[in-house]
Amino acid sequence: MLSNIGNSILFLSVLLCFSIIYYSFQNLKTNKDSITKIIFQLCVLQSTFIIISFLTLIAGFLISDFSLIAVYQNSHTLKPALYKIAGTWGNHEGSLLLWVLILTLFSFFFLILNKNHSKNYRIYTLIFQNILILGFLFFLLFNSNPFSVISPEPKEGLGLNPILQDPALAIHPPLLYIGFVGSSIYFSAAIASMLSNYSGKLFAKSIKNWVLVSWSFQTIGILTGSIWAYYELGWGGFWFWDPVENASLLPWFVMTALFHSLIVLEKRNLLYFWVIILCILTFILSVTGTFLIRSGILNSVHTFANDPSRGIFILIFLSLMIFTSVFVLFKKLKINSYNVNFYSKETFVLINNWFMIFYLITVMLGTVYPIFTEVLNDSKVSVGPPFYNTVIIPVVIFFLFFMSIGPKVRWIKDNLKNLNVILGILFFSILINFLIFYLFKSYSLISNFIIISSFFLIFSSLIDFVEHFKNHSIKNYSRIISHMSFGLLVLFIGLNHNFSLEKDLNLKLGEKITFEGYSLKFEKLYLKEFKNYKAIIGEFEVNNLKDNFNLSLYPQIRIYENPNTLTYEASIKTGILKDYYLTMSNIDRSDYYNVKFQKKPFMIWIWISVILISLGGFLRLFKNEKKNY
Amino acid sequence: MKKKIIKSIILLTISFILGIFFIGLNKSSTYNTKDLIGSKISKIQLIQLSENKIITEKELKNNDFTLINFWASWCGPCRDEHPYLLKLSNETKLKLLGVNFKDNKKNAKQFLDNLGNPYDYITTDNSGKQSINFGVYGIPESILIDKDLIIIKKIIGPINKKDFESIKKTIE
C-alpha cells in the first residue's frame, strides 16, 4: 500500500520535472519579463509531491511496514520512535530520497525568493536544478528504490545498527545534506549565470545567502558527526581522517573559499570566473564524496552496504555533470588580468582561497590515493592521520596569522599603519603561550606555534569586537564571531591534544590502580535489561588525588538483539574544563576487563567553538535577509 | 594555441581521474574472506621465527597440502585449537605453516615449548601486514591450500572437532 503510494508519487514527480523543463524552455522563447504562472504552480506541486513521498517513507518506518525492504532491513518494532524516524535516512535508499527532497526544496525557494533577478537567469537555474532532480529520481526509481517491496511480508525487521542509534547521528544526515546537497543550487545558478550572461555583482547577490545557508549547515553537520564519533565509537577521538569525514570536509573547504570570494565579487566586481569555478567545484565534490562512499570503492567506518551498480550510476552522472560544466565554462571563459594591490583586502581574500585550495588538495589526495595505487600498482595502502597532521598543521599556523590580519585591511589599498597593534597582540599571544608552557606542561615547538597563532587570532578578533562595539556598528559581528571561534577551535584542539591523559589498564572486580595523580577502582559489575538491549554495567570510582575529588563512571557493554550486536558504550563525565572518558571491554576467558581511562581537556569548548563558527554564518544570513534578497 | 593545450590538459586529467574511479569500482576493495576460496595465493614472503630464512610459495609447492595457521601466544582461543593442530601434524600429506601474528618472540617460543610444536615451518608477522594479504583480520584463522597453491578451505576462529574432521577428509 505505502509502496504503491510512494512509487506513484515518485513517478509523477518525474513527469513534473519534464513539464517544468519543457515550460521553462517555452518561457525562455518569449520576450516577457516574468516567469509564467504555470511554472510556479508546477514547482509547488513538485515540492508537495516530494514532501509527501518522504513523509510516506517516514510513515512506513513509524508503523513498521516490513513489506518495504528498506524498513525491513533498517528498523524493528521495539525501536524508540526517534530512531524509527531516523532510520528513514539511516540507509542508502532513504537518504537518497532526502537528497531529492533537498534538491527540490532548494529549487523551489530559489525560484520564489530571487524575484528581483533576471528572468532568464532564474529559468536556466531552474532547468539545471531540475535536470539534477531528474537524474536522482531515476537513480531512486531504477536502482535504489526506497519503496521496493518484499513478499511475503516479514513479521519483524532486522533492526538499525546500534551504533547508529544516537541522537547526534539522528540529526547528522539532514544537517549535512542541507549543506552539500544545498550546494546544488549554486552549481545550477553558476551554469545559468554563464548561459544568460547574468554576471558580476548581481550574480553574487543572488547566491550569497545560499552559500551561507549551505556552509552553516555543513559546519553543524560535520560537528554532529564528530560528536557522534566521540560519544559512540568509544576511543575518545573526534576526528579520524576517515574517507567519509573527508568527503564532508572537501565541499566545506570550497564553500569557505567561495563565500570569501563572493565578497570580492559583490564589492569590487572581480573574480567572476573564479567564483563560477568554486560554485561548480563545490557540488561536484559533494557528488564525488557521495560516489566514494556509496560505491564501496573506499573502505570506511560507515555501514552503507556496497553495491557497484550504484557506483556506476553516480559515476556516470558525475561525469556528465563535470563535462557539461567544463564545456560551458570553456565556451564562456574570459581571462581578465586584475590589477590588485598587494596590501588590500582582495589579496587577503585570495590568500584565504589559496589556503582552502591547499587543504582541499591535501585531503583529496589522501582520500583518493589508495584508489590510485590499487588501480595503477595493485597495492593496498591506507593514508592515515600522520599524513594529514604533518601536511596540514604547520600550514594552519600561517593561515591563522593571515586570518587575523586580513579583515582589518581595507579594500583597494591600505598602508601598514596598524603594525604596532599587530606586534602588541603578537607579543601578548607569545607571553600567554609561555605562561601555559611553564605553569602547566611543556609541549612541542609546533604546538607552541599553534597556540601562539590561535591566541593571535582570538585577540585580534576581540580587539575588533571592542572597536565595533565602541562605534555602535553591527556590520561585522558575524565575521568576528566566526573568525574568533575558529581561533578558539584550533586553540582548544591544541590544548586538548597536549594535555590529554590516556591509560590502558586491565582490572579485576574490586581492584584499584593508582597512576599519574589519579586512582581508579572497579567497584561493581551488574546486568540490566533495557527496552532494546541488555547491558553489562561496570561501576568505577575515579579519584583525583591532587584535588581530592571523586566521581563514579559507568561504562557499559551492550548486547543488542536486533541485529545481534555487541557495542561498547563509553561513560563520559563532561565538565567545563575537562571530560573524563571511560570504556571497558571484556577479555576472553579471564576475570579481567580491559579499561581505558582518558582525561580530555576542553572537549565541550571544541564543540562550542564549532557551533559559534556556524552561528557566524547564520547571523550573516539574518543580516543579509534584512537588507535585501 | 596555449589556451588549447591548457584546456586539453584539464580535460585529460579529469578523464584520467574518472577512468581510475571506473576501474577502481570494478575491483572489489572490501575483503569478503569467503571469496578467497578457490583463489591462488601468490607473492608470499614470510620470515622464519628462529633463523632469517624466508619462506616463499616455492617451498609450499612441494607439499600435497599446507595448512597456514595464524596464531599468537597472547590469543586464548589459539590454545583451544592447539590439540587439533598437534593431531594434524601427524598427517603425512599435510604440512603445517604457522604464522606468528603480532607477537613477541620469547613468548611465542615459550608457548610452543609448553604446549608442543605442531608446525613444520614457523614464521613471524610482527606487524600483521603479511596476514592482511591472506585476508586475515583476527586470529586464530587457518587457510588450507593444495599443491597448486589454491585455497580450498578457510577457517575463521579456532579449529574445532568438525573442522578437524573436514580437513582430514579433504586431504585423504
Q: How much β-strand is present in the residues of chain A?
A: 5-15%
CATH class of the largest domain in chain B: Alpha Beta
Helix share bin of chain B: 40-55%
Please report the number of helical segments of chain A. 18
Overall strand count of chain B: 7
How many distinct helices of chain B?
A: 6
Report the count of strand segments of chain A: 10
Looking at the overall shape, the CATH architecture of the largest domain in chain B is 3-Layer(aba) Sandwich
Quickly give the structural class of chain A: alpha+beta
Instruction: Say what oligomer this is.
Output: heterodimer
What is the terminal separation of chain A in angstroms? 43 Å
Task: Write the H/E string of chain B, N to C.
Answer: HEEHEHEHEHEEH
End-to-end Cα distance of chain B, whole Å, is 73 Å
Beta-strand percent range of chain B: 15-25%
| Largest sheet descriptor of chain B | 7 strands, mixed
SSE order of chain A, as H and E?
HHHHHHHHHHHHHHHHHEEEEEEEEEEH
Mean pLDDT of chain B: 82
- Which residues of chain B form runs of ≥5 with pLDDT under 50? none
CATH superfamily of the largest domain in chain B: Glutaredoxin
Biggest beta sheet attributes of chain A: 6 strands, antiparallel
